[in-house]
Every structure is written in C-alpha cells, then in structure tokens.
Amino acid sequence: MNRAALPGVRLNLRPWALASLLALSACSAPEAPGSGDVDAGGTGGSDAGDAGGGLTGEVQLGVPGGPDGLDFSPLEDGAVLNLETFGQGGTHVLLGVRCIGFGSRAFVELRAKNLALGSELIAPAPARPQLLFCEGQVCDLVPITMMMGGIAPSDAERDGLAIELTANVHNAAGVSAKDSRRALLSTQDL
Prior knowledge:
Number of strands: 11
Radius of gyration: 22 Å
CATH class: Mainly Beta
Number of helices: 1
Largest sheet: 6 strands, mixed
CATH topology: Immunoglobulin-like
Order of helices and strands: HEEEEEEEEEEE
C-alpha cells in the first residue's frame, strides 16, 4: 500500500485483515450501469441505452390473467377493477406490472389517484428490489395487491369511482420507466 496516498494515516493491519478489507471493498464496488448480470438487476446486455447514453426500459400496467391468475394481462384505459377484501376487511385491487429491459429484479412503486378529489395513495417500492418472473427480457410481477383504503372518504360511494393508476419502476443499474392507466373501481365483489 502506498503511504503517500494516505498522508497522516498509519495503518497497522495484519495481512489477513488487509486481505479481508480489500475483499469487502471489492464486493461493494458499484458496477457501471448496464454491466451487471440479469439477476443483479442489470440490463443483461440488452439494447436498453438511448442516444443520450441514459438507460431506458418499458413498463406496462396490467391485471392477473390466465387459468391460475398468474399470467399478465394488459390493463386497458377505462377497465373495471374489482375491490376485494380477501377476508381481512381492508380493500385492495389486484394488479400486474410488466417490466421490459430491467433484468429479473426491480423496485416497483404503485400510485392510485382519485380523479374526482385528487387524493392519492402510494405503495412505495420496497427497500430491496422485487424478484420478477422472466421469460427473456420480459419480466412480470403478477399478482401484486394495492391497498385502496383511503382512496375516498369512508362515507363516499366507491362503485364507479374513476382512478388513475401509475407504476414507477427502476433497478439498481439506473433503468427506469413508468406507465399510467385510468380505471373504474367496482364494489361488486364486496
């Protein structure tokens, strides 16, 4: 180690301690955007870069589909989303998020805005990236529940309430994108 690089600092490390310190610093060194593997949330070598050098991806809001409810179906503007309680009393909607060009892990934030009152609910992205189910560069988070308690005052009618849903997605490599769709809530299943 070059002592000139650390003026006034005296290191008295045992060789094994120095080796451990160097190994730890190598593990936590940040990677360049897009250089990570797919499992680490990188772009996996895809053409996710744009002409400006930034990284982009694509996000699509959807709902669970297929025979087992684990497939992604696109959410069309104006679709009806059923409020559900799942036997616990709170109200939720079931959504799906498709992520293209993010790798197999991403941070997913959901927002729901009451278009009549302007109030907004936010389901923040977790502290660690969520594991996505991938087939090639197309990765899905299905189903994902979003709590709807508070989207309207407790005495307000929620059946037919117009909302705007937004999914904001990013990964550790700096890829980010969002998608928004308008939908109507239904209390039919309550």
